[in-house]
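Title: Comparing notes on inverse folding

I've been comparing how different people in this forum approach sequence design from structure. To keep things fair, I'm posting one structure and asking everyone to reply with a full sequence. Here's the target:
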């Protein structure tokens, strides 16, 4: 696969010129910034508003799961670690964690949806296609649906990106541009997918009045 992705990238760059690489770098930065903002605003806000949990404590407690997600690029492979982190470090009871987190690992993929939205826009830009409001709405809708259907394994989000591109009439060849560096996109989107499921588990536990209090001073720094 690495050789094939390298060959595809070489072909796309040779055909379109090296100018296509700068927008690709910008797309990478955009996906990282959007995901980090999403975590900082939505996840931090949710755990703070619903569970009165400090966002710092939340992210510290999930550090180990984040590290595994970042390196394996698989929400499914990270599931045991993220469930353990949520239960031991954040006080999510086993019954809620073992329902919410596996369900989230299957259908809740915010990081993937963000990535698909940014990449669809990036591909439109590379091919000089101007998108209007209906197309943007279509991207939002199909990226949300495609992320729900994405499996928690490395690279699955890129395959589902084809659905988004087809829905708005963008050329599927655009995926070739992304294929070579998709792993770098995958690291951040999988991290967000996993952290998002944990945030959901914390919110459900809090709204059910089941969130356990972890005594202050307990090391939640990812052991
Ligand atoms: N690798 C992602 C995950 O496991 C799915 C994707 O490719 O977007 O969550």
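Reply #1:
Here's my take.
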């Amino acid at each position: 696969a690495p050789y094939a992705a390298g060959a595809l990238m070489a072909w796309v760059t040779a055909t379109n010129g090296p100018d296509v690489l700068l927008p690709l770098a910008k797309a990478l930065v955009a996906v990282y910034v959007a995901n980090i903002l999403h975590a900082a605003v939505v996840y931090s806000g949710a755990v703070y508003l619903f569970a009165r949990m400090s966002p710092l404590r939340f992210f510290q407690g999930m550090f180990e799961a984040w590290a595994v997600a970042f390196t394996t690029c698989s929400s499914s492979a990270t599931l045991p670690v993220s469930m353990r982190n949520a239960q031991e470090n954040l006080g999510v009871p086993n019954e809620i964690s073992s329902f919410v987190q596996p369900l989230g690992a299957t259908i809740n993929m915010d990081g993937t949806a963000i990535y698909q939205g940014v990449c669809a826009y990036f591909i439109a830009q590379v091919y000089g296609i101007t998108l209007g409001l209906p197309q943007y709405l279509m991207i939002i809708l199909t990226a949300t649906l495609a992320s729900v259907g994405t499996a928690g394994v490395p690279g699955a989000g890129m395959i589902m990106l084809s659905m988004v591109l087809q829905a708005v009439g963008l050329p599927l060849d655009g995926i070739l541009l992304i294929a070579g560096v998709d792993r770098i996109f995958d690291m951040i989107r999988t991290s967000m997918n996993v952290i998002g499921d944990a945030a959901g588990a914390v919110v459900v536990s809090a709204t059910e009045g089941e969130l356990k209090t972890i005594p202050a001073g307990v090391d939640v720094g990812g052991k």
